Amino acid sequence: MATYEVEHSIRPPAPTDARRRRPSLTSFFAALSAIDTSSVQNQHAVPTPGDASAPFRMLADAFEVMQRDGDGGGGERTGEGQHAELMQMLIQSLLSEAEHPPREVEGVSEEWLADLERIPKKKLKPADTCPICNNPFLEDQYPLVVRLPCHRSHLFDLECIAPWLRLHTTCPLDRVEMVKKKDVPKEKEVPKEKELEEEVWDDMYA
Questions:
Q1: Quick count: other Cβ atoms within 10 Å of Cβ 23?
Q2: For the chain, what is the radius of gyration of the CA atoms?
Q3: Which residues pair with 146 in a beta bridge?
Q4: Which of 43, 79, 96, 107 could form a disulfide with 167 if both were Cys (CB 3.0 to 4.6 A apart)?
């Protein structure tokens, strides 16, 4: 039996809850893995400048897609001008780093990302959007939203913020350093008795 729309030649309305897909970052993470000297298999590797620049360039390309999709045709989004400005700044930063790549990756670890605070869906508001993809969090049926430790209002889709943080230890919104440098461990105090023994030994074989 024909539907009402078919009988009256009415085109069905386009779905309004279609969430724009992010570009695939599989190649980015593969390139990052190849130069990540923090991993056991790469700890003695010395990445070439070409290898080191690849993840920065790939992420810049992905952000360009997000900028175009986030500011363009999928309907009005709040703060589109601010989104374009932020994305342009991040893209320029990544391209500059691709031209002059660091000797080693300076981003956060996967363990650090896993420990980020997750925001429950019930605490998200309809107006809350990801600063990077510019999608409202609640457009996703199962949003995975994290809060950065620098400010309570700095919420991101984990899929969007993870690539940036794997290359940088700063928040993309305010550039606050989020990972404190480890304190240089103090040398163990040598017992005085041990010091005396070593002095006697040195005197004997001086």
A1: 17
A2: 25
A3: 118, 156
A4: 107
Write out the two tokens for 155.
């919420």
Find tokens 């360009």 and name the residue.
64
Q: What tokens does 95 get?
A: 């391209």
State both tokens at 126. 């309809």
The two structure tokens encoding residue 163: 């690539």
Residue 36 has pLDDT above 90, yes or no: no
Q: What value does the mean pLDDT take over residues 92-121?
A: 93
pLDDT at 111 over 70: yes
Contact at 8 Å (CB) between 80 and 69?
no
95 and 57 in contact (C-beta within 8 Å)?
A: yes
Q: Does pLDDT of 177 surpass 50?
A: yes
Under DSSP, is residue 20 helix (H, G, I), strand (E, B) or coil? coil
| pTM assigned to the model | 0.71
Numbers of helices and strands, H then E, in the chain = 7, 3
